[in-house]
Design a protein that fits this description.
Number of helices: 5
Largest sheet: 9 strands, mixed
Distance between the termini: 30 Å
Oligomer: single chain
Strand content: 25-35%
Radius of gyration: 17 Å
CATH architecture: 4-Layer Sandwich
Helix content: 10-25%
Structural class: alpha/beta
Length: 247
């Protein structure tokens, strides 16, 4: 699905492809998630990295992208690097190289402490919180961007989803992109869903997410944004968030 002439959603995935940068864009991988949870007594199958790799490989085959941009939270822990995070981060970078991704860029999120030390080892570009790449200001999202450059803003952090209820009353979530404009400048804002397999997301049509990011307190109205939901192999336009609210 095309968002602009230069930006498209890779159908049925939480990935953008930016033609002018020849790069895929994702956010919130939270590598090492299962190992971190196991240390807390919660045991879940190791599926996150496997699913991420499968999805990216499919996207690379469709787009032939040579770059990967991660808009924050490539790892999961806040205050240290868990051994599983390091192992999966290493495996992830090697995987990207193996499928022809030549340029890897990480915009650090609030989980990405200590990641700078691996910049030289893995030959990746690392920015704190935000980076201007071409006409795009890409930032994680727990802070307002400092730069006024960029015609299009892209962020992660929020893990957006749309909650839907079936006839039996049970709720399901569909991960979604949010697309809208900034209040004052009218610049395009794209919020990317979480790449993490286990992160179902926050249902923005049901819960108040204004506290999750100052973006929605200060410069954007989430209710006016379009929800582009990820389906099985396709992307579905659900319309504006305000029209999806449950009364």
């Amino acid at each position: 699905m095309q968002i602009t002439k230069d930006v498209e959603i890779v159908e049925g995935t939480p990935l953008l492809y930016i033609h002018s940068l020849d790069s895929l864009v994702c956010a919130d991988l939270h590598l090492g998630y299962e190992g971190v949870m196991a240390d807390r007594g919660i045991f879940i199958p190791k599926a996150n990295l496997k699913k991420i790799k499968e999805t990216i490989k499919q996207a690379e085959e469709r787009t032939k992208a040579k770059g990967m941009i991660v808009a924050g939270d490539i790892k999961n822990e806040f205050d240290k690097v868990h051994v599983e995070e390091f192992n999966e981060f290493s495996e992830f970078v090697k995987f990207l190289r193996s499928i022809g991704i030549e340029h890897i860029t990480l915009i650090k999120g609030n989980h990405d402490n200590f990641i700078d030390k691996y910049k030289g080892t893995y030959n990746i570009e690392i920015y704190r919180q935000e980076a201007v790449l071409g006409q795009y200001l890409i930032f994680h999202g727990e802070e307002l961007p400092h730069s006024s450059k960029g015609d299009v803003l892209i962020m992660g952090h929020v893990h957006p989803a749309i909650g839907v209820f079936n006839k039996a009353g049970s709720k399901e979530k569909l991960k979604c992109f949010l697309v809208g404009t900034l209040k004052r400048s009218g610049k395009l804002l794209i919020v990317v869903p979480a790449m993490n397999y286990f992160a179902e997301g926050v249902d923005v049509n049901i819960e108040d997410i204004s506290g999750l990011s100052p973006v929605f307190d200060k410069i954007a109205d989430i209710n006016k944004m379009r929800a582009l939901c990820i389906g099985e192999g396709e992307t579905l336009d659900f319309g504006k968030v305000e029209d999806l609210k449950y009364k």
